[in-house]
Amino acid sequence: MKFVVRENITGKMGTFETHFTVPDLSADTSGLKLSSIVWSSQREHLTAAVGSAERIAKKETAANPLILGDEKVMPNITHVFRRSQNLYVTFDVYDALPDPANSRARKVKISMSLFNDAGAKAFEIGPLDETHVADTRPDAVPVKFQVPLKDLAPGRYTCQINVIDQVGRKFAFPRAPLVLLP
After folding, report:
1. What are phi and psi for residue 104, nearest 5 degrees?
2. Structural contact between residues 37 and 89, judged by C-beta atoms closer than 8 angstroms
3. Are 122 and 115 spatial neighbours (Cβ–Cβ below 8 Å)?
4. Residue 15, pLDDT score
5. What is the count of structural domains for the chain?
6. Domain residues for 111?
7. Rounded to 5°, angle at Cα 144 from 171 and 96
8. Cα–Cα distance between 42 and 139 in angstroms, integer?
9. Which CATH number goes with the domain that contains 92?
10. Is 5 part of a structural domain of the chain?
11. 113-163 confidence digits (pLDDT tens)
12. I need a surface site. Which of 70, 115, 165, 172 has the fewest CB within 10 A?
């Protein structure tokens, strides 16, 4: 996907290109199926969201995985962050098996590690437990967490998110590059 942006007053233009994957939820694979991971450093109140020409219905708001309460997560497509910001991570786990003790619950463990250019682990959180299924997205387990970046040194990192379905014994370890500025 390639984005082109033009600033109307000066005419300056910029581009950004990125790859994304649409998971095949019907395929029988050995790995755990996840949505795209949304990286963000900003949340805005729904009333301040840019580009909303009309009022959003409550039903649409409830179904949108990027809306939490009265705030919307603003994706950071460049993966460049500042130490003064928080990193917000949002994604869904699609095919976690039900907990034998409760068919509406799941047993999903999540952790996140940041590795520096030398490959050494610079930061880790987790494991976090996610057990509930989204009300508006059948069988999807929403995962949302935030990480303060103030204690990390500026530089380039590889972020790895570890997702394990304890009942289905499936896992996924997506990685993404991140840049942290002073």
Report:
1. -90, -5
2. yes
3. yes
4. 85
5. 1
6. 23-181
7. 30
8. 27
9. 2.60.40.770
10. no
11. 999 999 999 999 989 999 888 887 778 899 999 999 999 999 999 999 999
12. 70
C-alpha 26/C-alpha 170 separation (Å) is 16
77: tokens are: 């497509």
Q: Is residue 95 part of a domain?
A: yes
Q: List, for residues 11-56, the tens digit of each pLDDT value.
A: 898 887 777 667 666 767 778 888 889 999 988 887 765 555 456 6
What would the DSSP string read from start to end of the chain? Answer: -EEEEE-TTT--EEEEE-------TTS--SSPPB-PPEEEEEEEEGGG-TT--SPPPHHHHHH-TTEETTEEEEE-TT-EEETTSEEEEEEEE--PPEETTEEEEEEEEEEEEEE-TTS-EEEEEEEEEEEEPPSSSTT-EEEEEEEE-TTSPSEEEEEEEEEEETTTTEEE--EEEEEEE-
CA-CA distance, 132 to 90, in Å (whole number)?
15
- Establish if 12 belongs to a structural domain: no
**Could you tell me how many residues make up the chain?**
182
Mean pLDDT, the chain, integer = 85
Considering the domain boundaries, does residue 10 fall inside one? Answer: no
